[in-house]
Amino acid sequence: MKIVYCIYSMGVGGGVERVTTTKVNALVQQGHEVVILTTDYKGQPTSYGLDKSVKIIDFGLGYAEDFNIPIWTRLFRTISKMKRHKKAMSAFLFDYRPDIVVTTHPVETAFLPFIKDGSKKVLEYHGSKFIYRMERSAKSILSLRGLLARIYEQRDACISRNFDAVILLTKEDYDSRGKQKNMYVIPDPLSFEIQESADLSSPIVLAMGRHTEQKDFFSLVDIWEMVCDKFPDWKLRIVGDGYLKNSLICYVQRKKLGNSISIENGTSEVVPIYLNASIFAMTSKFEGLPMTLLEAQSVGLPIVSYACPCGPRDLLKDSENGFLVAPSNKVEFSSRLEALMRDESLRREMGARAKKILAATILSISWDYGLNYSSISKHF
After folding, report:
1. If you write DSSP's letter for every residue of 260-309 in order, what string do you get?
2. Helix/strand/coil (H, E, C) string of 208-226?
3. Taking phi first (over 0 means left), then psi (-120 to 50 degrees means alpha), and beta for anything else, what does residue 209 get?
4. Residue 155: how many CA atoms within 13 Å on its side-chain side?
5. Binning pLDDT at 50, 70 and 90, where does residue 134 land?
6. HEC readout, 16-43
7. ω before 6 within 30° of 0 (cis)?
8. How far is CA 303 from the centre of its chain?
9. Does the reported pTM lie above 0.90?
10. How far apart, in whole angstroms, are the C-alpha atoms of residue 292 and residue 297?
């Protein structure tokens, strides 16, 4: 099959690029021809070892350049760019004639299903419906961001019906969207599979992800402040990049926690970082399917995570392979973290179960992504 995969950009790192690279490489290995279309790719090297046979074509629209401008200006610029985007996309698809077009690009969802080039159109969500609900709850209905969150949620519900298939990451998200007939749950694949397990003796708590409001690393710093004096040998490592990184560094300095918290740059070489940790912590406000939880479990790390929508409830069995904590409950989170920091045998029990549970569920599905994809295509 000829498959087109659409994404904002490559070479910027992050979970979406990592997952896209893994999926595309798997599809190529199965004999499919794959082209990646981007809108914001600057020609930089890809981050996670993309197969050399895969061609990247960039439309050069620069949506990301508008992220930090006033929202009204950004809205008008986006509408203008969408017209050019649709024209470029139509021209490419009618020329290339793919069998399947998969989009992860939110802007394309407005027009891609209506380009009648003969290909089947697949919408792949890397977030969840709850991103809009979180935005609504954080902003007044009178604010533009709050209003747009309401509009986008309704828009998503309408647009998804126009696709031949919609790929969701969790059953929780599937249930929240009304279980449409064209929706399928396929967890994201891991980008690596290793036999090693973390030793779980290092006094290190690990958190990993982009520095955004969603990940809420500021709450993790507050939680760490509650426990660090009791465990002077332990360190918290927060690994990743993002626009709030400098703010988080300043926050750590204000709290005088620099001796026990390290804020480190993101890297594609994540396996050694996981293997050197003993506990993984996640304080996200919402997720799609958090790859960091999958990766942490794959090396046998016990986890403490907020039970945010979506993902943690699908991946974690409370008190078996980790602890699920009520969202925003810092006191409970700190208590669960303390229990694991204090008891190495508990860490080892939970870590062993984490690896076993993951192998029995997610890995059997996610590593077979291409075959799942072929199975779905039979329903078109």
Report:
1. TEEEE---S--HHHHHT-SEEEE--S--SS-HHHHHHHHTT--EEEE--S
2. ECCCCCCCCHHHHHHHHHH
3. left
4. 13
5. low
6. HHHHHHHHHHHHHHCCCEEEEEECCCCC
7. no
8. 17
9. no
10. 8
